[in-house]
Amino acid sequence: MIYQFYVERDSLLHSLDPRVKIIGTLIGITSLMLFNDPKVLIPLFLLILLSGRVLGRLGIGEQLRLLKPLLFIVLLTVAIWPLVYRPRLTGLLLGVSFSLRLLGFGLITFQLLMTTRQRELILGFVKLGLPYELGLTLTIALRYIPTLYAIANTIMDAQRSRGLELDRGNFLERIRKTVPILIPLIVAALKTAHELSIALESRAFGASKRRTFYRDIAMTKRDYLALGVLMVCFAFLLYLRFVLGIGNIVIYR
Amino acid sequence: MILVENLHFAYNGREVLRRVNLAFGEEILALVGPNGSGKTTLAKHFNGLLKPTRGRVLVDGLDTRRHTVAELSRKVGYVFQNPEHMFFEETVFKEVAFGPRNLGLSEEEIKERVRWALRAVNLEGFEERTPYSLSGGEKQRLAIACVLAMRPKYLILDEPTTGLDLRAERSVVETIKSLRESGHGILLITHDMDLVLELAERVVLLMEGEKAFDGPVDEFFKLNLDNYGLERPELLVLAEKLGVGFVRNFDELLRGVGR
Q1: Are residues A69 and A89 in the same domain?
Q2: Where in the sequence is the domain holding A93, given as residue range(s)?
Q3: Integer distance in angstroms from the first to the last C-alpha of chain A?
């Protein structure tokens, strides 16, 4: 069972200031949205994967494993594009590259989470000007995805033990069969949230308007350098896309 | 009879169970061991929720690898640790009826089974209550009833008394005893050594995925439990000091002293 994404490593990405990494993530997501040409999207995805390996010392398999929950929607995309688009081969290529765009969004977000501790992430968001409550809410939400996933698995096991067959029946029957899973899951989520709010309040959350931090972060020369490199790369991609017009193809005629 | 033969189970490339051999029949078998020793992983093999990486598990001759959890649920009932993880119906009656309904029984048969199961756990008259409105002990017994209504021969109870107060714990213990008397085989996963002492006929101790002990309960308490991070029940410590020897409950201790 996974309870958090963060993996302890001694790498460049781990040691960078969280602000740089957050900006980098946003740049990465924007870049993926700029292009729709498979010739650019496919290398871009591989580049993101590779940079996680080289700069963050995250194993390729380790990174890809987290994308498993997206498998269904990826298969759907890859299957439907060649059906509705002609020529079919181009359709398949488009399906693959749009899937990779989606996977790229996931991958780059996971890379941020795998290389940044939760407290640093909040600190990064707050220092970027986000209200503390929002930063906290965001990280709590991320923090609880694996927990809820684990609870959902337990609930599924419990109901399967009562004879519920999740993989049998037609579409409507299958939807009906999610009720015994969803209701206990919602109850568990609400209870967890309620307990968490009590825990936060009992530790004087919101007692003072201006927060100070026990651990502070500061941008070093290296962080500015990394930020500079990111900006240059982004500017280069913008130049490619809007001045040279590379990476954008007409899909709908 | 549930037979576990040379069971190995690997998860994410890590072997969590190794060389486990076990036979489990009409008895109360306590499965004990420290956190992460593989107790729940082993128990999940008994009704096919997990399938062996190597070796096999036979439930009354059925190989769990070739049968679904739904099929095996007629023979093996699994009551999960947190009863709330299974409740989703508006009433206790509907909740208990869910399992039998999945077995495709007639309405009549379902009604009869629900009534019987609720009686077995002493929850008669609760039919129209909402499951979530019950107390801790009642919820635990309702969870047992939900599984019991499927009339399995074997019952797996995961930490059935954790978090319950004394009275609720007693009610669950009495339920377990009466189920044993009516011919069920019960696998009890627990950390509570008092519960093991009182209920278990046989104990299996798991350490880091391997069987470290398998034998009768009095033999088990002759082990130096400190080595396994387990605590010796106060009752046994007291009995030893009084020179009474092995006892399983307070009454036996009193009788021993009086002699």
Answers
A1: yes
A2: 1-116+221-253
A3: 47
8 Å CB contact between B139 and B83: yes
- Residues contacting residue B157 through CB under 8 Å, at least 6 positions apart: B79, B144, B176, B186, B187, B188, B189
Query: What is the three-class DSSP state of B161?
Result: coil
Total number of domains in chain A = 2
pLDDT digit string (tens) for A201-220?
999 888 887 777 787 888 99
In this structure, CATH architecture of domain B1-75+154-167+179-229: 3-Layer(aba) Sandwich (3.40)
Q: How far is B55 from chain A (nearest CA, A)?
A: 22
d(CA B221, CA A77): 60
Residue B52 near residue B9, CB atoms below 8 Å: yes
Q: Which ipTM score applies to this complex?
A: 0.89
The CA-based angle B226-B227-B233, given to 5 degrees, is 30
- From chain B, pick out residues whose CB is under 8 angstroms from the CB of A147: none
Looking at residue A186, what is its pLDDT? Answer: 95
- Residues with Cβ < 8 Å from B210, sequence gap 6 or more? B17, B18, B19, B20
- Do A60 and A182 belong to one domain? no
Longest dimension (CA), chain B: 58
**Cα atoms in the Cβ-side hemisphere of radius 13 Å centred on B66:** 6
- Note whether A161 contacts B146, CB cutoff 8 Å: no
Residue B91 amino acid letter: T
Nearest to A184 among B47, B70, B87 (CB): B87
Name residue A66's amino acid.
Answer: L
User: Which tens digit of pLDDT belongs to each residue from A58-96?
Assistant: 999 988 988 988 999 999 999 999 999 888 888 999 999
